[in-house]
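ok so I'm stuck.
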Amino acid sequence: MSGAESRLAAAELLHLTLDKRRTLDEAMVLSEFFNELEGSDRGFARAIASSALRHLGWIDETVQPYLSRPLAATGTEIRALIRAGAAQIWFLGVAPHAAVNATVDAARLTRGARSGGSFLNAALRRVSEAPPPESQLPPENIWPEWLRAALIDSLGTDGARSLAEAQRGEPALHLTATRSPEAVAVGVGGPRLASGSIEAAGGAIEELPGYAEGDWWVQDQAAALPARLLGVQPGERVLDLCAAPGGKTLQLAAAGAAVTALDRSAPRLERLRENLERTGLSAEVIVADGETWTPDAHFPKILLDAPCSALGTLRRHPEGAWIKTAADTARFPAVQARLLDSAARQLASGGTLIYCVCSPIAAEGRDVVNAALAKGTLVRLPIEPGECPGFEDCVTPEGDVLTLPNASRDCDAFYISRLVLASK
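replied:
not stuck anymore, here's the structure
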């Protein structure tokens, strides 16, 4: 029954993410079958689940004609195994007969799927003979319909398609150096990108050179851009509003700023404290609600990385497209607007405020900023292409930045706007 255990673990990961609405990272902690695996079997189970999540819209739409009943009407275990089997056949290059046999064997290992083995076998054999989804469907069909419509509305078809294509592959690992980017690049054996980030090979983060010494932290190259655009000076007071888990706090502290890192989540700030200790950097850490907290003195620089749908990180967390709903994402703009108002009240005259979200949805980015500008308290300080190496083509006509991945640039989708107080 070689390989059946990996398929069973992959199916349980899919069940926990899609039916229990857990992130894939949470599912890997919770899955008993996954945690019984070791080495390459464990890695293969994760690869199956990740590939199925990256292509889920394609899989569900393409397998349905080959099933004798609706996919949604199948039992949770069998549905997860169908998705796992299709991912192996269409996207992981597993020989069809091996994928079918091992996945059907996996069904025999669990009581909930055992009775559906014949249905699963027939379904996967039909799938193995079917044309692959990429020959029939556009890239954006990897997402649920509501998300597809929202991204096309915000980005246009070409922009949404670019984001979908990026989601289909495993993302690169980007690092930000604590002190010497050149030394980190040499240590991890990866190139320095135009943006200033370092690209590293994959693998266990803790085992990469320089991790224990605090020479770097993991941060997508687009996520590193907002703090760079704030332009802090050594000794300058900076507020990182909604700071957890802390990558931008580390950037600002590494630039020599006197950083106040504020967030309402004490557990998430604990991770920030751990990274400050590992890197040897320092910041004042405050647990408080950013909407109501009032400082003793105004800040000349503020960075607001507002809570958002995180739909710009689907290449790293593809399950987000399926464990969130349109209603889940609709609640963010009101929160973002209140936080931006609060940040404006805390900004010193002549100071600079960066507003950013890891979402390409206009309602969470451009629309929030434009609504704030209409109140007359803030004005936009346009960002110039020369200020964001590697992202020059991402500057919008208004002077904001919307990073999108393309064939030559691997990154999350981030919206960034730079603001100052309006003259009285």
